[in-house]
Amino acid sequence: MYLGRVMGTVVAERKYPGLEGVKLLVVQPLDHRHEPTGEPLVAADTVRAGPGELVYLTQAREAALALDPCFVPVDAAIIGIVDELDARP
Amino acid sequence: MKLCRVKGTVVSTAKQEVYHGWKLMVVQPVDEQGREQGHSFLAVDRVQAGEGDLVLVNSEGNGARQLFQIEKLPIRSLILGIVDQVDA
């Protein structure tokens, strides 16, 4: 799991069965210093996050498990919104 | 499994149902000398680790699912133990 900042939304009208109604967001992965750790990616949202919010994500098989019904074809899912990050630099 | 240093905690209200009651920590991978390697990430803590502790982190979800006997657990990284000593 890792931290990320929601940068925007993605709209896809035609998509794989099971992905209907799944909100897709563009997320920039971050470390605990809020420094980018790689390229922005598209993640399925499970917690009603919005642009600008600090969130955390899970990847790979666990992303598919986070969605309901599970095992839809996604490789990243937002699983929480961060209220407070208390970490040493 | 990775050696990591606990950097802090994440507090979150809006989250997946199964994450309620689990402590989420920021962990920074380190080498055997304690030097930081790569980027920090988040891991669920079930061994009462604290900030500054050297810990062992499993970053593979099947381990967590087997450990907690929950078939559809979307947890990938789990703190498995607090390291007392590394001889390397």
Q: What is the CATH class of chain A?
A: Mainly Beta
Name given to the CATH architecture of chain B: Beta Barrel
Q: How many strands of chain B?
A: 5
Number of domains of chain A: 1
What percentage of residues of chain B falls in helices of 4 or more residues? under 10%
CATH fold description of chain B? OB fold (Dihydrolipoamide Acetyltransferase, E2P)
Based on Cα principal axes, name the global outline of chain A. Answer: globular
Specify the number of helices of chain A: 1
Number of helices of chain B: 1
- Count of beta strands of chain A: 6
- Helical proportion of chain A? under 10%
Biggest sheet architecture of chain B? 5 strands, mixed, barrel
**Weakly predicted, low-confidence segments of chain B:** none
How many domains, in number, for the residues of chain B?
1
Looking at the overall shape, the CATH architecture of chain A is: Beta Barrel
Indicate the structural class of chain B. Answer: mainly beta
Q: What is the assigned CATH homologous superfamily of chain A? A: EutN/Ccml
Please outline the major beta sheet of chain A: 5 strands, mixed, barrel
Biggest interface reads: A-B, 33 and 29 residues
Description:
The complex is a heterodimer of chains A (89) and B (88). Chain A is mostly beta strands. Helix content of chain A is 7%, strand content 43%. Chain A has one domain (2-81): OB fold (Dihydrolipoamide Acetyltransferase, E2P), CATH 2.40.50. In chain A, strands 1-2-3-5-4 form a five-stranded mixed β-barrel. Chain A is globular. Chain B has a single domain (2-82), classed as EutN/Ccml (OB fold (Dihydrolipoamide Acetyltransferase, E2P), Beta Barrel), CATH 2.40.50.220. Helices cover 9% and strands 39% of the residues of chain B. Chain B is built from one helix and five strands; from the N terminus they run ββββαβ. Chain B has a five-stranded mixed barrel with strand order 1-2-3-5-4. Chain B is globular. The two termini of chain B are 16 Å apart. The chains are: A mainly beta (89), B mainly beta (88). Chains A and B meet through strand 4, helix 1, strand 5 and strand 6 of A and strand 1, strand 2 and strand 3 of B.
